[in-house]
Amino acid sequence: MKILCGYNVNIDSVYRMGGAELSELLESFESSVILKKIDSPPGRIDSKSDFAAGLAYCMKNGCGAEWLVSNPLVFDFLKERYFEKSLVRMGGNAGIMANTLSELGTSLVVPNVAVPSKTQLSLFSRKSVYFPRNSSAKGPEEAEVKSKVDRSKVDASTPQQDPIHFVFDFSEGEIFSIYGKPFTVPRENRFIATCDQLNFRLFINPDFDAYVLEHAGEMDGALISGFHLLLGEYPDGSSYQEIIEKVLSRVLAWKARNERLRVHLEFGHFANRKLAFTVFSKFAGIVDSLGMNEDELASFHELHGVPVEGVFRMNAEAVGKAASCLASLHGLRKLVVHTREFVLAAVRWDETGSYCGTPEGPELIKGPFFSPEIENELKALEFGVKCAGTYAALGRLDGRDFVEKGVRGLQESKSGRKELDRFLEAFGGEASGNGAFAFRGGYMLCMLPTLLSKSPVTTVGLGDTLTAGTFLRRLELDVQA
């Protein structure tokens, strides 16, 4: 398989935040400022207090978030205080997915790299990742992963500073104090402070752009992501609409050159709901599949109409209804929802099937008997779940045998298994292996519990790892068929 990965590649600086350290950090700010921002989160980081309040909010609620850092002084503060004490690793949806694909045996992986610095390139897998050096490059044999990428075509006005995302992991059970009031972290998660000017604009490396247009006909798939980093407004007056249209034109050009090309768009945490709706509506009818987590699915409440409480709680009935309704609104071919406890895919199976645009729409739709299509979808999801579980437990992937061995020490999510039973009852589904399938409107729903580690090495990039593994396996199964 030959797969493209665009657009956000960056450096993750991962730091384990303890309760005592958070308590100490908060004490360096005025309590009234922090409490106000915890009560009404700003959703972005313009000051040090924004950062502290965002971290406290996430640890207090056990939720994850990614806020963009707009103030260079905050970047300096974060780098000086945490970078050298952090685990530095590949970041960005596209970067993580590129490494996952390479480690799983993909023959060629071509990523878009905004800032191909020595540090950034050193974080890529050395198995099958290829960096285009110019528009006449013919194949991976012309450049090794460790080679430097020609920056001659990169706009000189763009910042050359490494894009760093400061990831603050925290564990369930950590105890901390917010100005004398004790709290306990209810669930492990992470807070990300993102310092990344180029990826804010979905910067496309000219060498990547030229290579893809020339070789699109040879590619099997493309994973695109990073739209959640776009800003509502830019200092130079440009708009996110212009950027979205530019990327959309690229995808359409790829597909025009290769009708077999499968394109998956991975969503993300959007601070701007209007922007999220724009990305969804523009790409839903163009891409072959789209992925998101339960928080992102809940943000589309106005479209799918399912109460957000059930989606946030990872209730399988709520997630299944929301996914099928949202997908049907724009005729999306496939929507994959990955949560901590389970993964659920809504796949269009009947082009003339009944409309499922409201949660009160068709409940129990009789579908075809178990078929290769259903089997392949569940196989692909299962492989993705194994990849994510192994990556969480061990912090790396090293081939498929490594994945199969890695899952032996993992346990199926108990909550996910309970939700699978709820899924079967709610949709009149049928069990198959470790998962199940059902039909609602013109969509087939497939669900599988996740595999969890008692002591995860990381909680970042699991959705991307699952997505890349599932996407690759489905491509392989389709070719085999």
List keywords for this structure.
about 40% helix, 17 helices, ten-stranded mixed sheet, 2 domains, alpha/beta, UDP-N-acetylmuramoyl-L-alanine:D-glutamate ligase, Adenosine kinase, small domain, six-stranded mixed sheet, globular, about 475 residues
What's the name of the CATH homologous superfamily of the largest domain? Answer: Ribokinase
**CATH secondary-structure class of the largest domain:** Alpha Beta
CATH arch. level architecture of the largest domain? 3-Layer(aba) Sandwich
What's the tally of helices? 17
How big a fraction of the residues is strand?
15-25%
Distance between the termini: 15 Å
**Mind describing the biggest β-sheet?**
10 strands, mixed
Relative helix content: 25-40%
Shape: globular
- The main sheet orders its strands as 6-1-11-12-13-14-15-19-18-17
List the domain count as a whole number.
2
Mean of all residue-level pLDDT scores:
90
Question: How many DSSP E strands?
Answer: 20
Q: Helices and strands in order, then pairings?
A:
Layout: E1 2-6, E2 10-16, H1 19-26, H2 31-39, E3 44-45, H3 48-61, E4 65-69, H4 72-82, E5 87-91, H5 93-103, E6 108-111, H6 118-122, E7 164-170, E8 175-178, E9 181-184, E10 189-195, H7 206-215, E11 221-224, H8 240-257, E12 262-266, H9 273-283, E13 289-292, H10 294-298, H11 301-304, H12 308-312, H13 316-329, E14 334-338, E15 342-348, H14 372-394, H15 400-406, E16 411-412, H16 414-427, E17 430-432, E18 435-440, E19 443-449, E20 451-452, H17 462-480
Parallel strand pairs: 1-6, 1-11, 2-7, 3-4, 4-10, 11-12, 12-13, 13-14
Antiparallel strand pairs: 2-5, 7-10, 8-9, 14-15, 15-19, 16-20, 17-18, 18-19
Helix pairs in contact: 2-3, 5-17, 8-9, 14-15, 14-17
